[in-house]
Write a sequence for this structure.
């Protein structure tokens, strides 16, 4: 079976990405795995290196011409994917060496399934699968490491109004609505560096929070009912940032954008 592995990178060379480092041998030796690099980098020197490395590794390189967000990058990869299966990946995901072997076994054993979700862990938490809130209609999974049958994207798509946050929730709601058969796997287990806990300055955190607010409002346009149910999580996130940085600026943005009334 042929598989397309899509990795979105941002201001990092391919060689420095955890996803590539952990899968390098498989990506360079498996003839039935084709790699697409979607480069959201804003640094020209990084983009130049990634273009050169992609050529050397025989990867398909897509210059996104600036940081256009996850949804745009993944949709571009889907447009260029000519394989039967597509894997989406962040640059900060670490894969086990037998990831492709375990995935192929799952695909062969479950021919009726169109989407396979691996388990993803981070320090002190399980990132995927998860439920955004108790009454959410199904389990949800993060994008990184998920394997899709290519033809599912004839009925679902990444919402390009979403830049970074809630991309996985929006897609899972589409998947649930379309009744696409999915399977959550106990193995392989992936590990993720979670950018949400890595900010070192309040300004970085505020910039990141503004993206969160914008994406929350975009999700509300598509799924108003679920945003209404999810507003308590938005409040918890805001309170956590307020406490961490000892600043009311996050709560002020929360109130100004009327997220409490979502």
């Amino acid at each position: 079976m042929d598989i397309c592995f899509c990795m979105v990178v941002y201001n990092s060379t391919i060689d420095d990405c955890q996803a590539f480092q952990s899968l390098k041998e498989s990506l360079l030796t498996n003839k039935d795995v084709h790699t697409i690099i979607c480069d959201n980098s804003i640094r020209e020197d990084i983009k130049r290196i990634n273009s050169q490395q992609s050529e050397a590794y025989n990867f398909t390189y897509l210059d996104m011409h600036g940081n256009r967000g996850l949804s745009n990058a993944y949709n571009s990869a889907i447009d260029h994917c000519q394989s039967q299966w597509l894997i989406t990946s962040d640059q900060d995901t670490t894969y086990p060496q037998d990831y492709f072997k375990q995935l192929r076994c799952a695909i062969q054993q479950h021919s009726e399934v169109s989407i396979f979700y691996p388990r993803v862990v981070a320090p002190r938490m399980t990132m995927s699968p998860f439920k955004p809130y108790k009454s959410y209609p199904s389990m949800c999974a993060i994008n990184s490491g998920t394997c899709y049958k290519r033809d599912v994207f004839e009925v679902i798509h990444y919402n390009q109004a979403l830049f970074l946050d809630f991309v996985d929730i929006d897609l899972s709601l589409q998947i649930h609505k379309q009744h696409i058969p999915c399977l959550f796997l106990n193995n392989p287990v992936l590990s993720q560096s979670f950018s949400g806990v890595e900010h070192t300055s309040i300004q970085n955190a505020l910039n990141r929070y503004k993206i969160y607010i914008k994406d929350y409002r975009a999700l509300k346009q598509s799924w108003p009912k679920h945003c209404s149910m999810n507003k308590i999580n938005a409040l918890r996130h805001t309170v956590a940032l307020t406490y961490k940085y000892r600043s009311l600026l996050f709560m002020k943005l929360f109130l100004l954008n009327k997220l409490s009334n979502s």
Remarks:
- The chain has a mean pLDDT of 92.
- The first helix runs from residue 18 to 29.
- Strands lie at 3-9, 33-39, 60-63, 85-89, 93-94, 115-122, 125-128, 147-149, 182-192.
- The longest strand covers residues 182-192.
